[in-house]
């Protein structure tokens, strides 16, 4: 199974928000859909989920346009900041409705997640905090039978402890029934351990799609005495530099050196640094 996006564009008036976007989502894979605010992430996800109509381009799921086939569209589920079920319903009422709407809805798993997050399922969604409103939508998304679940900023309004639970819930859902998850988030390093592939979008265009493991081999970080790190970074493509006292740290794009002085420590490039490099203002 493959969800394919081809030359997708969206224009609001004279402003083109998404421009010729193309990528593929394989089955049973966790993707990171990354970019700065305003890069076009939410617009793209909404077009895939048929919540926005594209200006041009195509979307296909196993060769079929899901917007023209209700069964195919049902295989795609988007969680965003907007409510598509009544916010004056309780979580319990929403789950009952979803169970009728989706004959493969996993109500037992939904109850497990309610316990994990400590959510009061009898309380109206609109009466919950912003963070818990999103938790309620996340629980529904992880329990439906959709094969492609799109999560737009799933940790919005949550504290650090709850954000960890979101990662835990996502892994529980994946391990119980492997499928494709697309996670769009600005807290990149927190979700990085979950991701298998990354799609980076900037100013409405795709900059890169690659396996995380491969991306992180494209650079490295050196930390050590200022004079040694300065010497080792001469002529290199430097993404970031920081100095604290006599210690200097540089993030470098390129192949790793075969040998280093014992005083210098080398670590892997991280996704945050790579994103900043790819999307930096010129």
Automatic annotation (TrEMBL):
The keyword Nucleotide-binding applies. It comes from the Bacteria. Keywords: ATP-binding, Nucleotide-binding. InterPro entries: AAA+_ATPase, ABC_transporter-like_ATP-bd, P-loop_NTPase. PROSITE patterns: ABC_TRANSPORTER_2 (PS50893). The keyword Nucleotide-binding applies. Pfam families: ABC_tran. SMART domains: AAA. Coiled coil: none annotated. Residues 3-228 form the ABC transporter domain. GO terms for molecular function: ATP binding. This is ABC transporter ATP-binding protein. It comes from Streptococcus caledonicus.
């Amino acid at each position: 199974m493959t969800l394919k996006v081809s030359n997708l564009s969206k224009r609001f008036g004279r402003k083109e928000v998404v421009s010729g976007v193309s990528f593929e989502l394989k089955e049973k894979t966790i993707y990171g859909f990354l970019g700065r605010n305003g890069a076009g992430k939410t617009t793209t996800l909404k077009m895939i989920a048929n919540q926005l109509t594209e200006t041009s381009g195509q979307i296909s799921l196993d060769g079929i346009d899901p917007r023209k086939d209700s069964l195919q569209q049902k295989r795609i589920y988007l969680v965003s900041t907007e409510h598509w079920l009544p916010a004056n319903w309780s979580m319990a009422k929403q789950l009952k409705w979803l169970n009728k709407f989706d004959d493969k809805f996993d109500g037992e798993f939904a109850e497990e997640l309610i316990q994990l997050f400590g959510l009061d399922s009898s309380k109206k969604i609109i009466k919950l905090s912003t963070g818990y409103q999103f938790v309620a939508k996340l629980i529904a998304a992880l329990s439906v039978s959709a094969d492609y679940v799109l999560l737009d900023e799933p940790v919005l309004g949550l504290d650090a402890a709850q954000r960890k639970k979101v990662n835990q819930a996502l892994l529980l859902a994946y391990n119980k029934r492997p499928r494709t998850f697309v996670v769009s988030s600005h807290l990149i390093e927190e979700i990085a351990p979950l991701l298998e592939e990354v799609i980076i979008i900037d100013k409405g265009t795709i900059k890169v799609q690659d396996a995380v493991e491969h991306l992180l081999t494209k650079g490295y970080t050196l930390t050590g005495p200022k004079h040694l790190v300065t010497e080792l970074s001469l002529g290199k493509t430097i993404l970031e530099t920081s100095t604290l006292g006599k210690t200097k740290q540089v993030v470098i794009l390129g192949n790793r050196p075969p040998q280093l002085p014992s005083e210098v420590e080398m670590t892997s490039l991280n996704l945050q640094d790579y994103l900043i490099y790819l999307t930096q203002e010129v």
